[in-house]
Structures are given as structure tokens and as C-alpha cells.
Amino acid sequence: MSVHISAKPGDLAPVVLMPGDPLRAKYLAENWLSDIQLVSQTRNIYFYTGQYKGHRISVGASGMGCPSIGIYSYELYTEYNVETIIRIGTAGSYHAHVPLYQLINVESAASESSFARAAFDMPEDVLHHQGNAFELINQTADEMGFSLMKGTIHSSDVFYAKHQGTPPFALSHQALAVEMESFALFANARYLGKKAAALLTISDVIPTGEVISADARERSLAPMIELALESSIRL
Fold first, then answer.
1. CA distances (Å), 103 to each of 38, 81, 100, 147, 187, in order?
2. Beta bridge pairs of residue 70
3. How far apart are CA 119 and CA 134, in angstroms?
4. Chain centre distance of CA 21
5. Radius of gyration of the chain from its Cα atoms, rounded to whole angstroms
6. Domain ranges of the chain
7. What is the mean pLDDT of the chain?
8. Of the N and C termini of the chain, which has fewer Cβ atoms inside 10 Å?
9. Between the CA of residue 124 and those of 100, 117, 127, 188, 205, what are the distances in Å?
10. Phi and psi (nearest 5°) for 190?
11. What is this structure's pTM?
12. Under 8 Å CB-to-CB from 208, ≥6 apart: which residues?
């Protein structure tokens, strides 16, 4: 049992899928996994373990932002012997040609965050996925016929800002989209010698103002969830 996760040793599988929203973790567990067990609900951050096609898989929420996923992923890696975390989340597209519902397999995360530097003396502002999960997601997407973009995304520490549109930092790194967590996940995995990937669904297109409606959001995330699950059982 860690400080922020109340699961017992052995309750969590070696592969964890990690959405930001606790209710999205619950939705995934109840709709895609069998024989599910709620193994932690400290601070209403739900972690479940169940079976997917005969493979043991866990799912749990990260919360929002680098500090939050930094805590949960570090404890999963160090306290529960988790080997791989696949973040599954939403992102805002910086480009009209990266449309709603587009899946992005994150090759690298660029960030102004001080997380990696403060925690591990990593000076870079771009960190890459760790391990083989990224390539397995690419291979699985090809076999399943899913359209998948690969590239750099912007992990931002801010959701609301004085200036709207694409910030100069994101432009300088040719970021496809913006979210708030992948940079810290990649930093933890790199420091600890673990595996990490991030698979994102575009939920809004910043230059056009398009957005997935609340009613359509759960249904629209199904391809990302299925791709993450099919990839995870190959790890």
C-alpha cells in the first residue's frame, strides 16, 4: 500500500491503462473488463483490476496535470511492480488538419514544466515515450485499421491562459496537440527504467472551435480504449 493508492501488493497488474478521469476508469473497467475488482478508491481515484481476453489488466485514473500523474505513476512503478503504463486521454488539436476523434500515439512530449528537472535533474524540455509500447500500439493500429498519427504533443501546465491559440513554445516544437500529463509520465518511466506510452483522442480543435459533445464523448473514446487494450495484451 502506497501513500496515495490503497491497493494491496499483487492487486495491480503489470500493465496499467491510465485515463485522467476516475469515472472514465470506472467506465472502461465496467464495459471492457471481466471479473473486475475495485482495488483502490483513495481520494475517489479508482483503480480496478480485471481480465481482458484472458489477460490481467489494471486501469486507474491519474488526475489532471504533471504533478498528479507524477505521483500516481511513480507509486505504481515503485510500490506495485507495474512495468508499463499507457496513458489514454483527450487532447486539444493545434491544427485544422488534426481533426476531432483523431488518435495520436505520442512519440515525444514537449513541456515548459519544471517537473523532470526538479525531480530528476533532467534538463530537456522534450521527453520521449519509453520502452516498446509505442511500437506495439503502431503495429496494433495497422492490424485493426485505425487511423493513427505519430508525433510530438505539448504537455502544458496551464489550461486557461491570457493569450489564446497556439503558444510559441508549441509552435517551436511542431506540436500536434496539447494535453497536461505525458511529460511527467515519460520522465518517471525514464528515471525508473520502466515503460510508458500515451495514446490520445482529439476532443477539440482549437483553431476551429470544434468540440466533441458531452453526450458523444464516451462513445468517441471507444477506439482509443480498444486499441490500448489490444496493444496491452501484447506487452
1. 28, 29, 9, 7, 22
2. none
3. 24
4. 11
5. 16
6. 15-232
7. 96
8. N
9. 30, 8, 7, 14, 28
10. -65, -45
11. 0.97
12. 96
Q: How far is CA 25 from CA 103, 125, 145, 234, in A?
A: 19, 29, 25, 21
Confidence band of 92 (pLDDT split at 50, 70, 90): very high
| 3-state SS, residue 123 | coil
Q: Return the C-alpha cell found at 212.
A: 466533441
Cell 453526450, located at residue = 215
Return d(Cα 129, Cα 23) in angstroms, integer. 26
pLDDT over 80 at 192, yes or no: yes
Buried b (16+ CB within 10 A) or exposed e, 147-173: ebbbebbbbbeeeeeeeeebbeebeeb
Q: Which helix or strand (DSSP H or E) is residue 204 part of? A: strand 195-205
In this structure, CATH architecture of domain 15-232: 3-Layer(aba) Sandwich (3.40)
Element (H, E) at 34: strand 34-40
pLDDT digits (tens, 9 = 90+) for 117-130: 999 999 999 999 99
21 is catalytic: no
Residue 145 in grid coordinates: 485499421
Q: How far is CA 180 from the centre of its chain?
A: 9
Task: Determine the Cα–Cα distance for residues 33 and 132; give it in Å rounded to an integer.
Answer: 23
Q: What span, in angstroms and rounded, lies between the C-alpha atoms of 59 and 39?
A: 10
Q: 155 and 113 in contact (C-beta within 8 Å)?
A: yes
Of 21, 35, 204, 215, which residue is the catalytic one? Answer: 204
Q: Are 134 and 186 in contact (CB under 8 A)?
A: no
Residue bearing cell 500516481 = 72
